[in-house]
Specification:
- By secondary structure, this protein is mostly beta strands.
- The protein contains one helix and 19 strands.
- The protein is 7% helix and 34% strand.
- The chain is globular.
- The N terminus is likely disordered.
Amino acid sequence: MKSKTIRFLSFLFPYLLACSISHAYEQDNWYLAEEWGGLGGSEYYYGPAQVYYESNGSINGGRIYVADQGANKVQVFETNGTKLFEITNLSYVKGVTVDANGTIFCLYRNGLKSYDHNGTFNQTLGGGGSGDGQFSIEASLFNSQSQGALAIHPANGRLYAVDGKNNRVQVFDANGSFHSKFGTSGTAPGQLTMPKDLAFLPDGRLIITDNSYLHYFDENGTFLNRVGVNQTRVAIHKDGTVWTADGKLRNADGTV
C-alpha cells in the first residue's frame, strides 16, 4: 500500500496542490487511502487523469471530482472523503470540470458529455473523430503522450477541452454548443505536439502543456508565447503562481 500511495502522489501531485490552495488542506488526507482505477505494480497510468475541486459546491462547501481513467468513470466525493456518486461508462475518461451552474462535463475516449449536479446525463456534446466538436483521445492507459483535460474560462464561462491526438483545443459555449477551435500539429510557435493539460491564469490567459512547452494563448486562441518545460502537468494558484509536475513553482510567465 505504501508504494502505491507514493506512485499515486507523484502522478497526481500538481492536482492535489491545486486542491490544497483551494481550502481542501483543511480536510484529512483521505485520498491517501484511495486506490483508484486499479493502481498497482508499475501500471500507475491507471490512476486519475484529472482532478477538479469545486470550491463553491452545494455539499459541505465543496466537492472533489476524479476522472478515474482506469475504471472508466468519474467519482465524486465530499471534501471529507465521503463518496457521493459516480458517473460510469466513460471509456478512458481523461477530463472533468464543473461550471457555475453545477453542470458536470466529462471528456473521454469517445467524446464529451455533460451531466447535472447529481450525475444524471444531460447531453452528448461531441463524439469521436476529427471534425468540429469531435475528439480523438488516446485509448492506451500506458501512452501518456496524448491526453485530454477540461477547464472553464473564469469570465466568459466557455468550456475549453484538450483534444490530444488532434493537437488542438476545442471551445464550447455555456449551452454546450461548439464555439471554436485552435491549434495545429507541429513544433513551431503556436503549434502543439500531443497536448495534455490546460489551465487558466487569473487574468484569463490559457496555459496549454505538451511534452516540450507551456504554451500561452488568449481566450480567443491567439498564440502569445511559450516557455520550454519538459513536463506536461500544470496547476495554478489564484494569485497566478504556476506549478509544474517537475516540482517547481513558477511565476505567471512560466519563469522560475
